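As described in the Methods, two query proteins were run sequentially through the folding procedure within a single session, without resetting any intermediate state between them. The first query and its resulting C-alpha cells are shown here.
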Amino acid sequence: MTETRFTEPRFTEPLILAEPEQPFWGFAEILLTVAVCVASGIGVVEFAARVLHAPIESGFWSVLEEAAVYAIVFLALKAMFARYGKGLLDSLAWSKPGPFTAASLALVGVSLSLIVAGLQYALMTPDVETPFEKLLNDPASRVAVALFGITLGPIAEELLFRGFLQPVLIGVAGVFPGILLTSALFGALHLAQNGDIWQSGALIMLVGFVLGTIRHLSGSTRASTIVHVAYNSLPFLALLVDGNQLTKK
C-alpha cells in the first residue's frame, strides 16, 4: 500500500503596492506655493511683454514663460523642503514606478488618449477655436508647444499635482475624495485654455483621475508621468507632423 503525501498549496506572492504616505507639508505650504506661482506668473508675463516685447498670442513665448514660472516654483519648493532636510525629487515621489513596467504605463497612456478622443466625439464637444489653439499659428510655436507637451509640461504637472498636492488631500479627505479633488483642480486649471468647454473640462478631469490613481497605486510620480507623456504623445506628435490644431491637452 502506497503512502499518500499531501503537500501544502503554493500561493503566488501578493502584489504589494505603495505604502500610505504621510507628507511633511500641508496646506500652509500649498498656499505659499500657489502664491509664488501666481506672483511669478504675473511677473514673468509682464517682463516678457514690456522688456522683451513678446507677442501675446505666441505659443513659442508662452512655452518660455511657463518654463520660467515652473523653474521659480520648483526653486521655491526646493528651498521649502531643504528646511526639513529633505530633497525635492525624493519628497515628490520621483521614484521607480512600483510594480508597473514603463511599457505597461505607456500603453495605459496611449489607450487613455484614444478613449478620450472617442468620448470627445460622443459628447459632441464643440469644434471651436480655443485660446490654446490660437497659440499655434506659426511653425516655431507648434514645435515649441509640442515638445513642451511631451517633456517638461507633464513632468512639472505630475510633480505639482500628484506629487505635492494629492498626498495632502488624500491625508485630509481619504483616497478616493483626495484623488477626485486633485483631478477636479487639474481639470479646472486646463479649462480656460480649452475655451471653458465643459466637455473638455470633464474629460481632463477624467484623465487627472486616472493619473492620480496610477500615482497612488505605484507610489511614484514617475509612473504617472510616463502615463501623462504617453497620453499627450498622440495629439502633440500629430501637431508636429502636420500642424494639426485640433490638439487639446
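Immediately afterward, the second query was submitted; its sequence and C-alpha cells are:
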Amino acid sequence: MKSFIVAFTLIITLSLSSCSEGHQNPNIIIIYTDDLGYGDVSAYGATEINTPNMDFLANNGVQFTQGYASSATCTPSRYALLTGSYPWKEKRARILPGTAPLIIDTAQITLPKMLKKQGYQTAVIGKWHLGLGTGQVDWNTHISPGPNEIGFDHAYIMAATQDRVPTVYIENGYVDGLDPSDPIEISYKRNYEGQATGKNNPELLSMMWHHGHNGTIVNGVPRIGFMKGGESAKWSDIDMADHFLNKVKNYIKSKKDKPFFLYYGMQQPHVPRTPHPRFVGATSLGPRGDVIAEADWCVGELVKTLQEEGLMENTLIVFSSDNGPVLNDGYYDDAVEKNGSHTAAGVLRGGKYSLFEAGTRVPFITYWKGKIQPKKSDALVSQLDLFSSLAKLTGSDLRADDSVDLLDTFMGNSNIGREELILEATTRTALRSGDWVMIPPYNGPAKLKAVNIEIGNSNQYQLYDLSQDISQQINLAESNPEKLNEMILRFKEIRGESYSKVKKIELK
C-alpha cells in the first residue's frame, strides 16, 4: 500500500508538473530590421537577393501580405511597437537626434513592462532611437531614464542610429568601454575645435556623404552631429552586426531557464551600410544588398542558437521592419548604381518617408514551431497590435487603446484583421479602411529629390482601391465621391479637424 501511495503521488506530481510546463508562457523575440522593404525579402518576391533564413520564418509561419509598421520612419514606429499607441498622439515621436530626451513616459505602460508583470525577463539589444535622459545627457556618467526605466531589465544599445553620434554602445545606462580620462562630448549644433568633419576633410573619408551626413568622422564615415572624445568606446562599423548578434546569443543562452522577451533591433540595411568583409560581394547590389545578406545570416544564427538550446518549440518569433526602403539615404554607396532590376518596394509605390504603401507596408512574419502552421495571410495587421495580442497570449489583462487583439490572427487561426488603420509618414497621416486608402491633401513636394521617393503629397485628395490597384496608380477621388466623403469623415473622426495640411519633411 505504501508503495502504491508513493507511486500514485509521484504520477500526480509529474502530471501536474507536465501540465504546468505545458502552459508556461513562451519566450518572445521581436526581430526588428531597419529600412527593410517589402520587396527586399525573397519570400516576398525579391529575385536579386536571396534571404533563406528570413524565408524559413515566412515559409514555416504566418507570412502577412498586409502587415504594417505604424509609420514610414523609424522613431515613430518603434514608439508604436513598444507602447501600442499611435505615434501621432505623441508630438515628440519623430526622427530624433542622438541627444534627444526619452520620449516614452516612465509612468506609461509598455510592452516590456506588461511582460515583466507576467514573469518575463526583458531585454533590448541593438538600435534604440527613442531618446535618452531628460535633455542634458552627460555621456560619462549613468544615463537615465532610458530602456531600463520603461521596462527592460537589460539594455545593450546604440543611442540613435548608425549614422549619428554618439558612435558608442550603451549597456544599462553606461557607455561600454569608456575611458574616464577621455570624456565624451556631443553636439548637434557646433563642431569642436580641431575635430575633422566630412564637410571639411573629404580626404579622410572611406565613404562619401551625399546629403546631411557631413559631421564628425568615425572609422572613415562622416556622421550626423559632432563628437569629441570616447575613442576607446567607439564602435567598429563592420563588426556591428556580429557584436549585437553575439550579445543576442549570449542573452538567450543565459536566460533560457525562464521565459524571456527579447527585442532585437538590427541596424541593417540602414545607412551607413558597412557589411563585414565576409559579406562584401555577397550580392550584386553593392553594400545595401550585402548588408541584407548579412542580416539574413544573423537571423539564421539566432534560429540556430534557439535550436541548440532546445528552445524552438517554446519561442514565438516576430519578424518585421520599422518602415519601408530607401536607396540613397545620405551616402554615396552604390545603392542606386548597383540596384539593377531589384525593386526594394516590390509592387508597392513610394518608400521610406512616404504615405504611399511602400512607406509602411513591410515584411511581417510570426513563427512558432509546432504552434503556428505555415500560411500566407491577407489580414490587415499592424505592429501596434502586438501589445494587446501578446498581452492575451501571456494572460495579462492590460490592453493599449490603439492596439487590437489579433492573437488568433498572429497564430494563424483566423484570417480576420483590423478594419482600419491610420498610416503616418513624417507626421502626415492617411487612412487605410478595408481595401481603401485615402490620403488628404498636403502642401510640399510630391517627391523628395534627395532620396528620389514619392512621398504622397498632392494638392488634391487621393483615393485608392488596393484590391484592384495595389501599386496605387489610379486615383479614384473624383470618380467615387461617396467613398471619398465616407473616408474623409472617418479620418476626421479619428484625427480631428485640426490635423495640419502643411508639414515640413524631415530626413535622416
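Residues 25-180+229-415 form a domain with the Alkaline Phosphatase, subunit A fold (CATH 3.40.720.10). We note this only descriptively and draw no conclusion about the first query from it.
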